[in-house]
Amino acid sequence: MYMVFVYWVYGVIFLGLAGYTAWIFKRLRDEETRP
Amino acid sequence: MRDRLTAGLGVLALVMVAVGLYFAAVSPPDENQKELVRIMYVHVPAAWMSYMAYIGTMLYSLLYLLRRDTRFDRVAAASAELGVLMTALALFSGSLWAKPTWGTYWTWDPRLTTTAIGLLIYLGYFIIRGLIDDPHRRARVAAVLGVVGTLYIPINYMSVYWWRSIHQMPTVQILGKPHIAADPRMMGAFFAMLAAFTVLYFFLLRLRSILAFREEARTIAAENAQLQRSA
User: Fold this and answer.
1) What is the pLDDT of residues B50-93, one digit of tens each?
2) ipTM for the complex?
3) Do A28 and B211 count as a contact with CB atoms less than 8 A apart?
4) Minimum-distance CB partner of B42 among A2, A9, A32
5) Contacts with B39 from chain A: Cβ below 8 Å
6) Contact flag A28-B2 (C-beta cutoff 8 Å)
7) Are the CB atoms for B125 and B131 separated by under 8 Å?
8) Contact status, residue B193 vs residue B24, Cβ threshold 8 Å
9) Within its chain, how far is the Cα of B146 from the centroid?
10) B210 with B60: CB under 8 angstroms?
11) Disulfide check for B200: which of A7, B13, B35, B70 has CB 3.0–4.6 Å away?
């Protein structure tokens, strides 16, 4: 029961960080490929 | 393309997060909170990273005000963006922790309330940036807000001392005599993750600043090309 909240918190934090990092990398790639 | 220091910081941050996760997984459950104590190993580092980000915004805002160089403004804004993200993550993870421990996702506790106000201050920082077109005027106004907004940190940190609060006292007491009352394995997991998030902050700050630099360079090049065409 308690572990559900633990998994939720770890999921939110690391998905948030991974999503933000991926968003920066995507925009960097867009900048490089822009004509 | 991206420099070696940024790549090195990224690899180091990944390794340190993996080590932190290992320690967090093998640390013992708490006597009162049982498994829920593992939330502390990411919730507190997230809040710590938001503090670092706002201090970074303050330092680079001060540098801008002293040197009037927009490079510093770019880094200040990149740091504030990270601060907003980490404050939001700390608030969200905190509310998930609050449900099984306090019985509610949200309460108007001083620590929670001041954190929410801090989030609004830095969201306002970006709204103001978006309203001003002139780069130097934007940088100047944002720098003042970036410096004044840092007052949020001591108020937020001290809120659990100053007002009667449901939130626990600071995990690591930095004022007065340092005091850590926990199993060494728990503190190992806590400090491993704190160190990992510190490196992660510097990695993301560099990466976001590089992006801001490239976007600004492209905008300036496009404006110059338009000026030449119309001349």
Assistant:
1) 999 999 999 999 999 999 998 999 999 999 999 999 999 999 99
2) 0.92
3) yes
4) A9
5) 5-6, 9
6) yes
7) no
8) yes
9) 13
10) no
11) B13
